[in-house]
Amino acid sequence: xxxxxxxxxxxxxxxxxxxxxxxxxxxxxxxxxVDPNGFGSIQCGNPEIFSAVRNIVPTLQKVxxxxxxxxxxxxxxxxxxxxxxxDLPQSKKVRQVNAPxxxxxxxxxxxxxxxxLLVRGEWGHDIIDExxxxxxxxxxxxxxxxxxxxxxxxxxxxxxGITHLxxxxxxxxxCVTTTLRECNDRGFECCILSDCTGGFDQQMVTTSxxxxxxQDGLFGYIGNSSDFFxxxxxxxxxxxxxxxxxxxxxxxxxxxxxxxYKTGLFDPEMVVNSVFDRIEKYKTIDPAxxxxxxxxxxxxxxxxxxxxxxxxxQVPPLYGVPFALxxxxxxxxxxxxxxxxxxxxxxxxxxxxxxxxxxxxxIYIGKxxxxxxxxxxxxxxxxxxxxxxxxxxxxxxxxxxxGSAVAVAAGLVSFALGTDTAGSGxxxxxxxxxxxxxPTKGTISARGVVPACKSLDTLSIMxxxxxxxRKVWYIIDQYDSxxxxxxxxxxxxxxxxxxxxxxxxxFTFGIPPTLILETCSQExxxxxxxxxxxxxxxxxxxxxxxxxxxxxxxxxxYNASLVQERIASIGHDFxxxxxxxxxxxxxxLFEAALDSALKPWQVFHDQALQAQYTMQAQKTFDTxxxxxxxxxxxxxxxxxxxxxxxxDPLGLNAKVGTFTHAGNVVDLCGVSVxxxxxxxxxxxxxxxLGGSGYDGRVLDIAAVFEQAMKADSKV
Length: 715
Known about the structure:
- With 715 residues, the chain is α/β, with parallel strands linked by helices.
């Protein structure tokens, strides 16, 4: 596929767009707007004109099919209101109905032949069958004419790295151009496909499109589907046909699995059987990865059921993708141990985030090892054994999500969920050469997860590549109104889009001061300097920052009263009654906390400090006030051996967390990616950190870096 396509006859001049970062937005193709007896027919008032609007459907249907085939993201919108109309402004409700000489005999919420007009959940509110959304395609339910008010559209676009937008749908003069104008304000390059949109007043349709592209492209471009089809066809003809991967002993990436499932070369049952074969083989290399595993029979039955459910249908985005869970995450009917026998219980429900994965077609394989009660970054604090790095039997796997990282790095599953309180999703990823993504805390449901420190916990995603991690993130990035620590989507940071992308558009980044970087081994220091130069070659500009709030915040986690929250989260009575049954290192940590002479006022003192450091850290990422786009740090300062960690379990663990401890304390998002290899052929990772809610921006920059590293490895 060509990296860029062009609509050469667009007005005011050619519209060029990269399919990989382009979205087709289909505005309001609902029964209520394009079928008779809906709100649109009332709005139009002329049956002949109204019926003509539906003429765009065949062309738009073809555009939709081609867009899906060339990898363009598809996003649908639906205008409508809550059943109680609580989100309907009175002005919108009565203005047209009250027109003295108007034709609006019915208004929003009134009962019509297809149900209540413009009300969510009614028959008329749904998208027409010809253009129905596929699993994984976002549907924006908007209460207004524009698509931003009261919705998460902006964040969805940023999360997916979208820079260019193709517009279609109804009506041109109202919802289509209203949304486009708002997209223009946010930095997106926009083009309306003129034969894929229509309205109820032809003069207004023509005028509104003229305004969009007038004055040399004041708001955007106007193109045509004929150019789109020609460019897409030419691009596909220039792309050599890809040969589906030949079945072997390795587990394919999520995009590869999707491709082979589509070709029929593989089916989920085959993949599940191959997963169990690899798991059995890897047990001879490292028997400490798994805590519990589904029986092969049950997993194969789940795969068969999945295949039957979607036979002849469009499959969901994680169809047939095998995954594992850290054993502090609930799966109904399976014991959650947190690797602490005294704490273990049989889960009565499945964690909401996990249920989203299952609903998206993913196949659960089992639970993996972890540091006891998620306390530690070593992977050496489990009564179920100590997993080692996939690259060395002598070196630690990292923790506390040790098994999650090893299971992915060893190719046993396509991805795994872990948790991250102090670095548990980033450290083990780095020490096993994979991607570890810690989303902004409060954006992924934490219900059904054994808490380590409730105000700081978040689920994390382990995957071989950023592409795989993002595909998983898109599924579980859902607001949970029952999670008391959840952030509402509209409270999260947003930023302007740059249609050039990070490499061409550029970005700024900071690094820790030399004194702190000197805590790294010399080899890690050298590799980090190489990573800095690589990031510069990817469009980055290094700027000086004040690293003080990050350093001080890291100290708060274990050297202040925040450690007491771990006692509150796990349960004081439980710890007091079971302290002697804990792993020796876990026991030492909690004994020190339980015996602390902490004064009550110190808790509030430290909370005030946390608030101060958080404010300062977030300002560091405010690009409107001279801040940076992201902070680059080594994921860990060293890679200890298991013997070294066992000899100094608390001191060396603290050192390993030098660059991760602050992350959740000051509300950052971050992703660890591989950035090279040591002389011992051990992986070295760097972490891209961003402000709260800046997940998409951080992932975009990290992706450019990942691509550059892969290009180097092929030379």
